[in-house]
Amino acid sequence: MKKVIMLITLTAMIILPLMQLQAQDFKADDVIGKWNTIDDETGRKKSVVEIYKKGDKLYGKIIKLFRLPDEDPDPVCDECDKDDPRYNKKIVGMVILEGLEWDDDEWDDGKILDPKNGKVYSCKLWIEDGNLQVRGYMGFSLIGRSQTWIRVK
Question: Does the reported pTM lie above 0.85?
């Protein structure tokens, strides 16, 4: 029992300062700028998204696509819902992040569109180790998918 308590105390002494350091390093405007999106299945760079503020909310639009030779170089969102104003519109220039709000240590309560399948998900983002963590989910954030985006240099 004494060893368990000592192990828990030691773990807390290591993890808590790291969590505080990470939280202190991340400010709301740190996410603003251009980010390379990375496909979480293939590891391939997919696009550049420019994240910007409009009022007190956060948005992001695709400004460049990295396409393979056999892919359409200028695709449209033909998988978007027909009621979505982005349906059949060009993906380059398309706003895919919408309405995120700052919530103490992350941007939350927004929406993200996956132009590949046309689905819109709830979204939140935060910076971890200098990279942008983007979490899309339906319902609860525990059930979803995350990607790591890398800042464009």
Answer: no
